Amino acid sequence: MYNKGEWFEEIKPFSGTVAYASKNDILKVEGIGTIPGTLNGRKIILTDVLYVPELNGQLISVKNIQKTGYSVIFKYNVAVIEKNREKFEFAILNEKRQYASQFVPPKASTYFVNHSAELWHRRMGHSSNKVLKEMGLPVSESPSTFCEECVIAKQSNSPMSKGPRSREHMPMRVVHTDICGPIDPPTREGKKYFVTIVDDFSRFCEMHLLMHKSDILEVFKLFIKQNPDLYKIRCDNAKEYVSGELARYYKKSGVIMDPAPPYSPPLNGVAERELTDIF
């Protein structure tokens, strides 16, 4: 029985319990599998190993070793395994008068199913139980499982106006835009920002990766040239939009800039909503 899930080379779900004498308690078994390792330089594989997360330490059953045809002999403070005239030391008596196995497990395994479904939920970017199940990972069986981060991330502000808002009747005449970043980690090219441009008519979205926020100028120069019917850009109050060379380029091109007031993301709601879809 082992309590280190990362030592298992492969593991399968298993339901059961074991009695733990030193704790006078019943411990839950959450899996069964194999653990590779070395014993005095020999490569061996422990099979049918129970995964018991609450176990205080590791236990190897002498009885189960004997069931495989080996003999276990205790002598001179050493436990020796023997079969077909082949013998090797298995464990030595330590200062606590316990036989401590000399089996050395791997440092880590490429395949590990953790007993905590919540941990895997967080590791996989707060994925749903359906996604975790499709990946072969543990899922929470409790309907009362609560993830505070998921609740916070899914919250949104109420609309500032509940009345209808007219939409443009032709494509690429009015667009909504927002810039996001820095993102960690960056892309392989070192880009850590991106800008979205959403068409008001079709809700078609373009996303452009940026090395620096100032690169947004070149993005919109090209976008305006490619869309000569564009006449209005809705954005937030970020300085990249409302000041500097980009603002002058809007004016020169005859494009109206429609920035939202400071600290009012709902007024740039189309672009803000697109960011939630991307993330």
TrEMBL record:
The keyword DNA damage does not apply. Pfam families: gag_pre-integrs, Pol_BBD, rve. Transmembrane segments: none annotated. Keywords: Hydrolase, Protease. InterPro entries: GAG-pre-integrase_dom (IPR025724), Integrase_cat-core (IPR001584), PolX-like_BBD (IPR054722), Retrotran_Ty1/copia-like (IPR039537), RNaseH-like_sf (IPR012337), RNaseH_sf (IPR036397). The keyword Nucleotidyltransferase does not apply. This is Copia protein. The lineage of its organism: Eukaryota, Metazoa, Ecdysozoa, Arthropoda, Chelicerata.
